[in-house]
Structure formats: C-alpha cells, structure tokens
Amino acid sequence: MGACCSCQRIERFEGYHVEEEEEENGFEDDDIILRGDAGARVRLQGSSKYVSVFTQQGKKGVNQDAMTVWESFSGDKDMFFCAVFDGHGPSGHKVARYVRDFLPARISLSYKQASDDGKNVVLDIETEAETENSESKNPLFLSWKARMTKCFHEMDEQLEGDASIESYCSGTTSVCVLKKGEHLIIANLGDSRAVLCSRDESNQLVPEQLTVDLKPNLPGEAHRIRSCQGRVLAMDEEPSVYRIWMPHEDCPGLAMARAFGDFCLKDFGLISTPEVTYRKLTDRDEFVVLATDGIWDALSNDEVIKTIASARNRSTAAKLLIEKAVRAWRYKFPRAKIDDCAVICLFLKKQKPLLTKSVSEMSQLSLNYSELDARSCTGSMRSDDALDTVLNCKVDESPENGESTTNRPRKRRPARKFEYVGE
Questions:
Q1: Of 18, 58, 158, 184, which sits most exposed with the smallest number of CB within 10 A?
Q2: Where is this region: Disordered (predicted)?
C-alpha cells in the first residue's frame, strides 16, 4: 500500500532526468521514466520490452503501494532491479515512496563498492559458481547477502532520521529482485511476495514461490518478537490474522514481522533485516511476478501465473492481473474493502507466445467466481477494513493453544518531452 504513480504525473526527484513517453495504443497513462545511478532507466509505471508495471488504488483511501524497475541497473545493460513496496499506517504511502526513491540507489552504489572486509573487489554476480542448495557456503553469495542487508539497515536508519516523514507508527514492506543474466537475487522484507513461473517436464506452467510471507505467527518470527517483550496476538474479529503489539499497549497491531519504519515496535521484535536468497535461472523459467498482498490475498500462485501467461500483450499483463484480483476480492470477500494492488512482471526471455492455446481457451483458466460455494464467500472472516495496523484496540491476551505456524512488439514514438526536475 503505497504511492500510485498514475495519480501524479511528475514526482520530485532531485537531479533525475525525466522522460515521458506516449504509447501508440493508448495503454495506461504516459510512462514515467527517470534516470538513476550510473544512467539506469528508472520506470515507475508502464511497460517495456521485458517488464510490465501497474498499480491500482483499493477502497481503503490513498494508494499506499509503490513500485520501481531499474533497467541497466548500476550501468550494466544486462541487469534489472525490481521492487514493490506496501505501505501501512497513517503515512504509509509516504514511507513507501521514500524507500522506493532511495533504496535502489543505495544497492546500486553498494554493488560497485568493495566488500565490507576492506578488499578492493567488485562483486560480480555473473562470476558466482552457484550450485543447488549451496548458498550458505558460497562466499560470493554471502558477501552479496551482507551488502544487501547492510543497505536495508542503512535505509531504515535514514528513514528514522528524516523528520519530514512520520515513520513512528507508519512503515512499508518490500520485496526486491536483482537479475543479471541467469542469476537472481531476492530480498524480502514483510508479506509482499515474489513468484517465478517455470515449465515442468510436461511443458506446463508451474509457479515457484521465491519468498516466504513473513507473518508474526511464523515460529521463528514469533520467538524473536516475544523474546523482545513484544506480543503476538489475533483479534476476536480476525482470528486468523496475527499481529505484533507493544508490551503494555494495544497498539499498533502490525500484521507483518519485518518492515521499514514502525519504530514504535523496533525495540519489541520488529526488524528491517531482509531474507536474502538466490536462484539460478534456467531455460524453463519464463517470468517473475512481484506483487503486494492485495494480489496474493485474492489469488493463488497458480492463478497469478496463468493470468499473466494469458495476456495477449506483455504491456497489459500487470493490469490484467490486477483486474482479475479485484474481481476475486468482490466474490471472496464481499464484506471487505478491496486492498491496493501493485504488480511488476519481469519477463526472462524475448517476447514470444508463452502458451499455444487460443485466447478463448485461455479464458477458461479464469475461475468462475459466480459458482464459488456460498461458504467460501459469505463465510469469510475478513474484516471490513482489513488493516495492516490497528492503533488502539482491545485484544484477548489469553494464550493461543492452536496458534498456527503458519503480436508483435509495440513501437514507441521518440520521447516527446524532456525535463529536469528538482531545480
């Protein structure tokens, strides 16, 4: 839940070059493209040859989702950096935008700098000799993991020190992927999610979840929080949604175990340390989807990848997925307010049809929500607000014995407008 890029045509990015492009087919609003560190192309909305980006405001107020794609990351034409941010709390949209604007540049600079042990070596992911399940022993991966973690911690410290952003009871999740050639680094903070679409031996599309939704009731997360005197409890009206509470106050009720900001809970078990993992890509891998929980609460991983694969054009893939998620929300949670949604689709191959079925056949992949049984619709316990934070609320502190562990490429016209902002 963060910034809606389509709501504001030009953001204030000091020193960034802004280039606005119009699509010949009229898709979406004009693209917003910035110039980042080392000449990277920074995309906040729209699409390109390998990415589709879209966000839509829900029914809870201002859109608190934000996202960014950096092509030619750190000056490397073969490198992509993608990230989505899900803000929460009174100023969650501001926190999500703030982290969106500063975190990628930190990671880009770190990529070019020497490792923390003082050696003057530039870590190049492409030189990693990764083998399956060898992450814990590979020194280059461990070095990169330490760099990524350091960037997240420094970003959190910068946020805390900026008085212009209220982050005491506001924060944001983040899930990032860094792709270079066949190498994929994933950094996850919170409950947004990354899913890889691959093909099995029968050439069928299958999802592979790359991240774990870091909820407070996961055993490891709950242990850390409670060891820091924080409380992990669910409210009576949301028995399946566990939240973090301060030791002696019924606030803020945060529904994730890791986040930027939310400094009221940083002494009580909430951390800004990401889970960093590695995946070596193969010829069977088709695309990666990054999305906020507005998507995953409504659709399964399998539904998500098949919806994207059914898109007639890559440029419409992210928007098509959000439209499907909104329809699913209305049927599955008729009494709940639809959440904000943000999606990034990163395609791994040159454009070609992913499925050989016709569009009419592909439409059968969609769920027929009108035929969902009544229990799955009306029996939902999701509250009307379904908030990520609950600032003041009475909670039952009795111990929970049953606590879960839980076709053709589009042509662009030349850039029509160039501006320098922040002057």
A1: 158
A2: 396-423
pLDDT, tens only, 167-218: 999 999 999 999 999 999 999 999 999 999 999 999 999 999 999 999 999 9
pLDDT digits (tens, 9 = 90+) for 120-170: 333 444 444 444 445 656 777 888 899 999 999 999 999 999 999 999 999
Write the DSSP assignment of 315-377 as a string of letters: GGHHHHHHHHHHHHHHHH-TTSPPPPEEEEEEE-SSS--S--S-HHHHGGGS--GGGS-HHHH
**Would you say residue 107 has pLDDT above 70?**
yes
Q: What is the DSSP letter of 25?
A: T
Decide if 141 contacts 148 (C-beta within 8 A): no
Residue 15 lies in a domain: yes
Average pLDDT over residues 299-314: 96
Q: Structure tokens of 242?
A: 């566990």
3 state SS for 34-63: EECHHHCEEEEEEECCCEEEEEECCCCCCC
Q: How many angstroms separate the CA atoms of 250 and 52, rounded?
A: 41
DSSP 291: E
Q: How many distinct structural domains can be found in the chain?
A: 1
Q: Is 109 contained in some domain?
A: yes
**Which two tokens mark 384?**
């009307």
378 burial type by CB count under 10 A (0-12 exposed, 13-18 middle, 19+ buried): exposed
DSSP label of 266: T
Give this prediction's pTM: 0.78
Give the tens place of pLDDT for each residue, 2-17: 333 333 333 333 334 4
Write down the residue that tokens 């501006």 correspond to: 419
User: Which residue, chain included where needed, has tokens 């990169």?
Assistant: 144
> In angstroms, rounded to a whole number, what is the distance separating the alpha carbons of residues 99 and 389?
19
Q: Is residue 241 part of a domain?
A: no
Angle of helix 92-112 relative to helix 139-161, nearest 10 degrees? 140
Look at residue 158 and tell me if it is in a domain: yes
**Separation between Cα atoms, residue 396 and residue 401, nearest integer Å:** 13
Amino acid at 158: Q
- Sign (positive or negative) of CA dihedral 148, 149, 152, 154: negative
Q: What CATH code is carried by the domain that includes residue 45? A: 3.60.40.10
